[in-house]
């Protein structure tokens, strides 16, 4: 029997019931009993009130996990359902797959603690040699996912994850450790209905000469928050994160990142772009922390967004916190409307207004994907954005 603080809301009680009976679940339960779910009173959640989003309880799951896109047909597919996870396809040599109990994270509260608490088991992927086959993580509606990835020195892995449920609470926690010279490339697609709660957190430790590259596209949900915490602990570490969001109706999407430079000669490049219309809300929070010993850090962070209609909301908070004196760091943030001159130019050439707007928004947002080296992956992201624009704008 769980003793519950009388101040907890009905939604928080429902979350307590949904947590797994594991050490991680008990840790998350203790955190909620002590502090409740994050609200706008918490600085990190001031534009993303999780308690309010869950005030009516945990939505019943519905929808489909979707098909595996053509560009990932050769991938090893791992399906995460409310009952557990299963594998489909062959795996490369040098990939060890194990399962272990979901353990609590140390001194952590928030989305990552919840994601750990919802998952009864953690899937462990150990990479001991170069991988030619991507791993496709497919989350079914309402399914928890916890994955721990360990890349040994000079190895590589491409990881793809999707969350497409119409309703329900889906959570994901990805923990990755990159040894010397390892490379992890991650692609992520999120799209949820107006009864979907989507919580994801990625924690990455980047060793000497290692590379982490992540690209994501979010269409939001009733509440969607994607967090990244990256720690560069070895000289020559590289972190590159690209993110895009397209939001309409009453959808909500929050892209939050914190990059910590702990070693000298490390590099971060972040680019986020978005477009929001109707009563939707887009949130960007990005912090780059350069510790005292991380001399010769090169860190760049940019966020640019379009407000397409009155009533749309975009909140942005870019931050630099620097304690080293030999660094090159910069950040930029712009929020505006469509270029009227560019729109007039297209209209003058016979392009209907809605189509012209869609073309301009597509060119603006999909710049995030322009530097992807794989043409089929770039086309996949661009096609997702184009389909959304045709249904909402064009």
UniProtKB/TrEMBL annotation:
Residues 146-364 form the SUF system FeS cluster assembly SufBD core domain. InterPro entries: Fe-S_cluster_assembly_SufBD (IPR055346), SUF_FeS_clus_asmbl_SufBD_core (IPR000825), SUF_FeS_clus_asmbl_SufBD_sf (IPR037284), SUF_FeS_clus_asmbl_SufD (IPR011542). It holds the Pfam family SUFBD_core. Transmembrane segments: none annotated. It comes from the Bacteria. This is Fe-S cluster assembly protein SufD. The gene is sufD.
């Amino acid at each position: 029997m769980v003793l519950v603080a009388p101040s907890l809301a009905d939604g928080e009680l429902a979350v307590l019931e949904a947590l797994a009976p594991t050490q991680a679940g008990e840790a998350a339960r203790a955190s909620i009993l002590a502090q409740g779910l994050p609200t706008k009173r918490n600085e990190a959640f001031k534009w993303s009130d999780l308690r309010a989003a869950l005030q009516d309880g945990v939505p019943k799951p519905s929808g489909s996990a979707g098909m595996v896109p053509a560009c990932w047909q050769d991938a090893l597919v791992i399906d995460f359902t409310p009952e557990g996870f299963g594998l489909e396809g062959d795996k490369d040599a040098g990939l060890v797959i194990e399962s272990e109990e979901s353990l609590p994270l140390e001194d952590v509260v928030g989305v990552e603690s919840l994601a750990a608490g919802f998952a009864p088991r953690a899937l462990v992927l150990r990479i001991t040699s170069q991988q030619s086959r991507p791993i496709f993580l497919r989350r079914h509606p309402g399914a928890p996912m916890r994955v721990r990835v360990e890349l040994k020195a000079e190895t590589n892995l491409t990881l793809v994850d999707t969350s497409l449920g119409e309703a329900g609470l889906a959570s994901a926690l990805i923990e990755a450790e990159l040894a010397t010279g390892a490379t992890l490339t991650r692609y992520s697609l999120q799209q949820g209905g107006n009864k979907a709660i989507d919580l994801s957190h990625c924690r990455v430790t980047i060793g000497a000469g290692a590379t982490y590259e992540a690209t994501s596209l979010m269409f939001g949900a009733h509440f969607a928050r994607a967090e990244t915490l990256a720690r560069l602990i070895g000289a020559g570490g590289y972190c590159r994160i690209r993110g895009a969001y397209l939001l309409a109706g009453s959808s909500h999407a929050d892209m939050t990142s914190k990059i910590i430079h702990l070693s000298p000669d490390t590099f971060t490049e972040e680019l986020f772009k978005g477009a929001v219309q109707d009563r939707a809300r887009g949130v960007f929070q990005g912090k780059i922390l350069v510790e005292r010993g991380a001399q010769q850090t090169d860190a760049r962070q940019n966020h640019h967004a379009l407000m397409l209609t009155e009533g749309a909301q975009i909140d942005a908070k870019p931050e630099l916190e620097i304690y080293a004196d030999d660094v090159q760091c910069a950040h930029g943030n712009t929020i505006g409307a469509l270029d009227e001159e560019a729109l007039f130019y297209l209209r003058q050439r016979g392009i209907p207004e809605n189509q012209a707007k869609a073309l301009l928004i597509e060119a603006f947002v999909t710049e995030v994907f322009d530097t992807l080296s794989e043409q089929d992956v770039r086309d996949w992201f661009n096609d997702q954005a184009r389909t959304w624009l045709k249904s909402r704008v064009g």
